Amino acid sequence: MTLCVPVPSTEDLVKIANKQDLLISPMDKYSNLPISKDICLATYVWIDGSGEDIRSKYRTLDFLPIKPKDKFTYLMDKMEESIRKETYLSMTYSQQSKYMPPYYCPKNFENFYRVECRLRATTNKNTFDENFQDLPILSFDGSTCGLAKPNNADMYLFPRAIYNDPFKRGNNILVMCDTYNYKLEPTRSNHRYKCAATYNKCKEQEPWFGMEQYFYLMNPTDLRPVGWPKGGYPQSSPLYYCGTGGDKIFGRELIDSHSRCCLYAGIPMWSTNPEVVPSQWQYRVGPSVGINAGDDAWMARFILKILAEQFGVSISFDPKPVAEWSTSAAGVNFSTLATRGENGISVIQKGIKKLAASHERHIKVYDAHGIADRSCSIRIPRIVAENKCGFLEDRRPASNSDPYQVIDALMRTVILNE
């Protein structure tokens, strides 16, 4: 007896596929719901009291913020700042009033002012400029974030940097913030405040940073690296680094998604590769200018953690998540106008001596440094030695270090000679 099995039509197969997709991703049923084009969901992101964990909340806005100028354009505009200031000072009082409050705002909370000699509209409800004056300052519960006591918990989020939202997309944005207490004083985990003040002293040197980030993909149920055998360890092998194959590499889809999400957000994602341990990865962000490097590095971490939620894994920035296996770091490539200029190698070597002498303010410094030597604490890449200019690589920071603190320390030591 022959059993006749009906062959499903193409239409039936499409219906089955759609049902399966809904089961895999329930959010698909709602992500395409039409939303007014005149509103925006702004996700505010900040660092909690641990100095390592990231929190977020979103606020619906009834206007569409426009991202500030990109970093390069901002640098080019700086060249005309002195001309704008001279123009402003030459104006009569009535002319100057067009550029003063409420139509002119401080550049940032630290009261560093920048003259904006251009006519601003008398109403500003539907626009956004690089002073962030249109984004609201939000409050949050500092007691649940390790920053305040329950009887005085309200704290404030100040918008600092805007990114495209790769998750909600459309008009929606991610906003990197720093935190302030009820007295409008920076909280103890707000290291951006000092870093921004330092950068304002170093702007003329145009410090560039490339931020490296190592991490492990972990199984959230047993907190062991993804793909590792239960109760055991993978075989030691040199084939994991930049390797290929399902027996060596785990989580590539998540990592590729992270790169694309960062690029969509506007974060300069430079490169990504698997590291020397199964489920250990590294990505590089940059080059970014000054304080922007810290913003980019923290937002890249936030995006990675949100993706990990969706892929069902967790991210460990712990420098040593598994004993006797490779550590994780957060190296920094650092350069200035002088190091990138002619014979910049001599400036780099002087900078390394400054770093060696400032061990109290840095995590750990070794006097030795070398060309293409990956065992030293400060490395001069081979291409820099050949070109006699470029950047140095500070290999000391741990993977869970605060990028703002690292950037601040480098600028203070190498540029400001502190």
UniProtKB/TrEMBL annotation:
The keyword Nuclease does not apply. InterPro entries: Gln_synt_N_sf, Gln_synth/guanido_kin_cat_dom, Gln_synth_cat_dom, Glutamine_Synthetase. It is found in: Cytoplasm. It comes from Spodoptera exigua (Beet armyworm). Its EC number is 6.3.1.2. It comes from the Eukaryota. One of its GO terms (cellular component) is cytoplasm. Its main location: cytoplasm. One of its GO terms (molecular function) is ATP binding. Belongs to the glutamine synthetase family. This is glutamine synthetase. Pfam families: Gln-synt_C. Residues 187-418 form the GS catalytic domain. Keywords: ATP-binding, Cytoplasm, Ligase, Nucleotide-binding. GO terms for biological process: glutamine biosynthetic process.
